[in-house]
Amino acid sequence: MVQKNKILVLLIGLFLAVNLQASLSTADRDSLMKHLKILSDQGWVEESKNLCNNIMGNSNYSWQEWQEFFEDYYEKHPATQNLWGYLGYPTYYWFSDDLHYNLQRAHIEIFPNKIDSIFTKYDVYLATSLGSEEDLRKSLFVYLRQTARLLNGSRSLIEKSIKDSVINSVEEWVTNYPDFFKKDSETQPKKLPYVGAVRWQLHSMLLDYSELTDERKDYLQSLLGIKGQYQEIFNKHSLYIADNNLMSEQDLHFIDTLMVLIPDILTSHIYLSNRGYYFSDSQEEENVSKYSGGINTFATIGGYRENPYPADISSDYIDGFSVVVAHETNHRVDPDYIYINEKLNSRRKQLVEQAGYVDKQY
56 with 39: CB under 8 angstroms? Predict the structure, then answer.
């Protein structure tokens, strides 16, 4: 009798374990298909958000169930920024960490597979297709940005072993498509639309993933094809110049000279970009997701002059590119050095309050 009771308890336990990891019901699947599509097409629709939340908040659904559902969803519908304007909340913020993990774990396999299939399918015609097929382009950048978030975002719960596997895929893409994804390849936006931005996103995944030790920098500059002045700046300052290879030698020399003057302890940003070099005037811009500090500039040395001083200071015109690089670099001093030091941050606040709105008290 005791033995039978033990077997009965075991069977009940197995039954409960199976049912705790319930299959996504047909009703839930159909409702999600409908309302995620509404959120994707129309943006934030409160009714659809609430209906999706009722299902997405069910922690009994396993990551495998979510993976199966979202694989089906992305086969039928393009991925959009609107969609992830909603999905980002249940995946990273709302509900429990167990649910966050299940949604993240489902997507960490889907996104790289989607990216790989696009690269494989379009191959040498990738640029042509990105320039002419809007749904393809927007879906690819959603897959890329969300993969970067799963790899390097602060709220990612994915195990390192799984992340390492994805990083290996990113490295393979760079190696397998050198004409597109090596730093020294020619990807001007009019000739190869959007390819430079894809390359920047792939590189940032790798740059953000591990600390830029000397050994890591040696590895990355070889893998990514960082050469010439770009290599010198990367080695000396741990600074990646994201410019689609279109900055002048004079621009790069100025950046190098300025960074030499700034103690390493003051800043820790690793990107200095010129987004204007990645998209032509006729192209809709796509964002690149990065999880380390960075600054952006524009134009070029000699491109324009400006008077950056307020009205109560005698005017003087200086080079626009140079002052923007210096100004934006100085902005990094606050988060990288001052805000994280209580004594310095208190002193900063005191100085700002003392200055008030009195002329010349900047």
Answer: no
The answer on pLDDT for 1 being more than 70 is: no
State the pTM of this model: 0.90
Sheet holding 294-296, edge to edge: 240-242, 271-273, 294-296
Contacts 24+ apart (CB under 8 A), 247-250: 247/274, 247/277, 247/300, 248/300, 248/301, 250/300, 250/301, 250/302
Residues 6+ apart with CB under 8 A from 225: 178, 182, 183, 184, 185
Model pLDDT for residues 60-97, shown as the tens digit of each residue? 999 999 999 999 999 999 999 999 999 999 999 999 99
